[in-house]
Amino acid sequence: MFFVSFISIAIYLTHVAGKSLNPLNESRKGVINSRDINTGVTLPLKATFTPGGTILDVDVTVGGQNFSMYLDTGSSDFYLPRTNFQCLNGTDNSILPQESCLFNKAYTISPTFQQINNQSFGVKYGSGIATGILGYETVTIGGLTVERQQIGVADRITDVGDGNDSGVLGLAYPYLTSAHPGTDYPNDTLSLWSNRIPYDPLFTSLHKQGSVKPFFSLAINRTPVNVSNGDGGLLGLGTVVEVPHKPTFAIAPVQIIGVIPPFFTDNVTAKTYWALSVKSTDINHLVSTNNSFQALVDCGNFFNLVPKDVALSINNAFQPPATPNIDFLETGSSTVSCNATAPSFGMSFSNNVTIYIDPRDMLVENADGTCTSAFVDADVLGESTGIVLHILGTPFLRSVVSIWDFGKDEMRFAERIETSGGADPPPNSSVPVVPSSNGANQGSEIYVTCLLFTVLTLVLVL
């Protein structure tokens, strides 16, 4: 779940995912359409700093009980810890005090919960494992209710929260969900990453019942180190968050990840993660099409994991240059002065629109006052696993308004525009979306977790 200091890849390899919802056939001009705004609901996100990075939480009501849940675009399950759950040591499975798992509260089985027979819940995150039962429950988010939403209720957990949240709300495709056959399903890594019974995640259910259009949007704010329940930004369900941004969007079709083994989707060819292709990179206005790569976009990853040549070029372009960490051969990360001047860096996508990352998002501030480059050498991490996985995490997403469109199986990004004070707009900002300059249409429209998949535990999968 969390991108720990030694680099846990913000990805659950428990994701692998589904088919498009209500495909739409609209113009792809890269300019937002009025159909994307002023509908749906917008929710505030809460940000909490952890040793691994800043986590985003959202408020949800489950069976009449209120929870703050970890928001994850890198997974699909909706799960909560159950009252009297066992918090386990991830190394030897010894029982720990419940507070060691850092969940704010646990879910009590309610009168509206209906258990699903002959199925088990079991998910493997970078931060641990959660196993238990599955059932249907009444879930409400932003005033929108699904009366029979399938959820996981965990009895045995090595996963951890941030002290303020409970469980995970995943926003990826259905094939990443973690229902398994039988009531005594094995909890080893290979079993948890295979033999799935896909079900509709919460957002899919909301769309299918007509509550929202088939896209969601994010605007993630920059938050200070050591913040707890701070202003994390905005989540729009079926709407584009009202945060100032440039009028033109970069467009990236969602792709199937080539490095994921077939057994993750039971040999079915299906979309799982929010994955895309970066067409070219621009470092200090030197454009290279040789550095194209496929990547996941994950709000639960605290770094950008990029190809070796891209990471090296960016880190050398800091003034003064970033230097490899002492554990570089394990983490691929580099230290940089917090006062360094960051290079200009942009990425272009399928419609040739380049998105530039804000200089403030080019480095990550640590709790001890030091800073780390936001760009990690993914090839170094892949050397120990044989699988190289690229990820665009929160350092990228803070610079943009992002739209994640199940209806068109595409993602869209527009650079954010600062308000007059230079700070991010508040959650209740009434500043309208910057209108299109040419009126062209676009169409509809994405946790360690966005949950992480620890590179060191990737074994042979991912």
Automatic annotation (TrEMBL):
<keyword id="KW-0645">Protease</keyword>
<keyword id="KW-0378">Hydrolase</keyword>
<protein>
    <submittedName>
        <fullName>Acid protease</fullName>
    </submittedName>
</protein>
<feature type="active site">
    <location>
        <position position="72"/>
    </location>
</feature>
<dbReference type="Pfam" id="PF00026">
    <property type="entry name" value="Asp"/>
</dbReference>
<dbReference type="InterPro" id="IPR001461">
    <property type="entry name" value="Aspartic_peptidase_A1"/>
</dbReference>
<feature type="active site">
    <location>
        <position position="298"/>
    </location>
</feature>
<dbReference type="InterPro" id="IPR034164">
    <property type="entry name" value="Pepsin-like_dom"/>
</dbReference>
<keyword id="KW-0732">Signal</keyword>
<dbReference type="GO" id="GO:0000324">
    <property type="term" value="C:fungal-type vacuole"/>
</dbReference>
<dbReference type="GO" id="GO:0004190">
    <property type="term" value="F:aspartic-type endopeptidase activity"/>
</dbReference>
<dbReference type="GO" id="GO:0006508">
    <property type="term" value="P:proteolysis"/>
</dbReference>
<dbReference type="InterPro" id="IPR021109">
    <property type="entry name" value="Peptidase_aspartic_dom_sf"/>
</dbReference>
<feature type="signal peptide">
    <location>
        <begin position="1"/>
        <end position="18"/>
    </location>
</feature>
<comment type="similarity">
    <text>Belongs to the peptidase A1 family.</text>
</comment>
<dbReference type="InterPro" id="IPR033121">
    <property type="entry name" value="PEPTIDASE_A1"/>
</dbReference>
<feature type="domain" description="Peptidase A1">
    <location>
        <begin position="56"/>
        <end position="414"/>
    </location>
</feature>
